[in-house]
Structures
1.
Amino acid sequence: MSSGRHRAVAFAPIRPRPQRRTGSLGFARRSAKVQMSSVAITGATGFLGLHLVRELLVRNHDLIALVRDPGALDRIARFLELVGEPSRLLDALPRRISIVESDVSLPMLGLSPKAFQRLADDVDVVWHSAASTELHDDLESLRPINVDGTRHILELVSAGQRRPLLCHVSTAFVAGARREGVVYESELNGSAGFENAYEESKFEAETLVRDWSRRYDRTVVVARPSILVTDRPPHADLPMHTLLSLGQIMRDAATRLCGTSRTAVRVVGHPQGHLNFLPVERAAQVLARLTEAEHPRRVSTYHVVQGHDVSVRVLMDLMETLAPLQMTMQSAAPAEQTALEAFLDRSPTAAMLSHRRRYDDTRTVSLLGPPTSPIRVDLDYLSAGIGAAPVAPPAPRLGNRS
Ligand SMILES: NC(=O)c1ccc[n+]([C@@H]2O[C@H](COP(=O)([O-])OP(=O)(O)OC[C@H]3O[C@@H](n4cnc5c(N)ncnc54)[C@H](OP(=O)(O)O)[C@@H]3O)[C@@H](O)[C@H]2O)c1
């Protein structure tokens, strides 16, 4: 599955403006609590971004949304209405959110030099959440948004006279194809390769951020959420999320290749496999709190994860409620695969069924305290979030699932 290689990330020097000096420590390092007057955010219309916008607004931050959709404010308003925010917040949106139409994949975000500099000088914090999260895309399609997009955001924070703090949304999946053991927040190591090009592009982006921080002695916050989920049923005003799109792809493939009757498939997995699914609302809360915290390191990387993992068997059960499948786990691919088995074997879901790694979140916990959320992410929770209803009466189990 993994190629074990990754492209060296080309680093084009991004020169920050001259910085204020602070005594014998040399260049000012932003370790003190951030006093925010202006927070910019990319990806504000995305699954995580909408929740982060909500959290930041509720915490009294006014925002500059760097979005490519001119109708973004309406989308944000519809989302806030969906999640039950009061009309006084909705009424205040035009005053509290400035929309800057921009595209992270373009140099200077597609803005004029004057508009780019004005934006850079206006911000104190930039949350960079925009990305392509297409797990099936290739690297060449993903790099312009995920890697070049991050480079352009680094150019923005470099140009800002107020030395804005960059908060970069990465992913726990920069750990790549490493399936076992503990992944630490200090680590960024691509030697195990990657299970898909999305992971690799996010790895390259995080590498760029780290290199920039070291080179220019600038503090950055890197947040690495695990798989973001919700128990809110699918809705037109709530963007697709990973599980929902993976489930739909699987259902379409099963129906196309095998029709609508329940079909037995053998999938490769590990009986002790487990995954970390994090409620997106909690991820947004943690990110909002990270914005306001004091960060002790130049590169402060935080795993943003749920306090408990979920067995990969729950993922199989979930997929069986979405698609007419009866899945049996095996330790290796069968010598002769059906077309559907071959398809599943190549899908990102297949790789997840073998994951046994854990994400150490010591830094997050020491900064923000232990998670207090009583939410239990289980089959019921995940099923609610994909609007799962059984596609056919459950068939008798085939083979040994334990
Ligand atoms: N979802 C997860 O499970 C998960 C887990 C860990 C980390 N993450 C990370 O969290 C971040 C947000 O993910 P998400 O789930 O919210 O993704 P998402 O729902 O796919 O949203 C992506 C956002 O990026 C914007 N965007 C894409 N291309 C852009 C461009 N060229 N210029 C400007 N904006 C652009 C999209 O704008 P439009 O609305 O215009 O398309 C959208 O707002 C990403 O960095 C992702 O890697 C996600």
2.
Amino acid sequence: MSMPHRAVRRLEETESLDRVAGPASKAAGRAVRPRPVRNLLSGTSLGHPLHPVLTDVTIGAWGASAVLDAVGGPATEPASDLLVKIGIGSAVPTALSGANDWSDTLGPECRVGLVHAMANSAALGLYVASMVMRNRGNRRAGRALGWAGAAVMGVGGYLGGHLSYVQGVNVNRTAWQQEPDEWTPLLDDAELADRAPRRVDADGTPILLYRDGRRVYALAATCTHMGGPLDEGAIEEGCVTCPWHGSTFHLDDGGIERGPASTPQPHYETRVRDGRIEVRVPARDGQGEPVERARHKVREGMARASTT
Ligand code: FES
């Protein structure tokens, strides 16, 4: 195990951080509770988590500034100063969107998130100090503070990458599911009572079935946000609400009514044949192959390639 990995593993196991991480993440959760705030900071209308988009701006600006400072010379100074200011300006919405995501974490993720936030706050402080020094004409101190900020930002960025790529925070939990791309019988029609959600299995993929009068709805039962069980969520007004963090999805097309989810819930066509409820990935007339089927074919191809 590499040294950075060992260090992060220790961080994950440091339960004493919970004394700060728990209450602070809960307070962040209360602050972002209003639906418009939640949707905005989660990237719900963007169709992608907002935080990684904004971090690119901040890291890009400060990283480029560090390079220009290293090159040095009067020609690079105005651009470097401007990049420091752009990074400071973008750091505020970046931090807010990060706090929104952090409010949904628990345990090891919450601990790593706390240190990630602390490192990035320290980087922001160093860059603000760097800007002050630059404005006063003390370029040497401005550059040194900027490089220190870049180093601390690197630590924060490493932890952010760990949160996403190792711990899977905010990763679409349905991305690897095997979708029923052909009509697949799931349940006897008589077994699905009206307005009583059922979790059924389609070749290993859990699916939520819900009957409302004559219509039967089918959605992936695993919440795209962080894997909550939608079959245990409240259903009202044509929507299901995840019991974990409150993402609300339309039953008919999986569209998001309320974040923190930013990826719509996979939904399926339904029909009744020979007394059995069947589902499949929806066909799209004239719009090419549904992405779920294309993905399925790619996976099958990879599986075949790995066995030959
Ligand atoms: S798991 Fe977070 S809203 Fe469903």
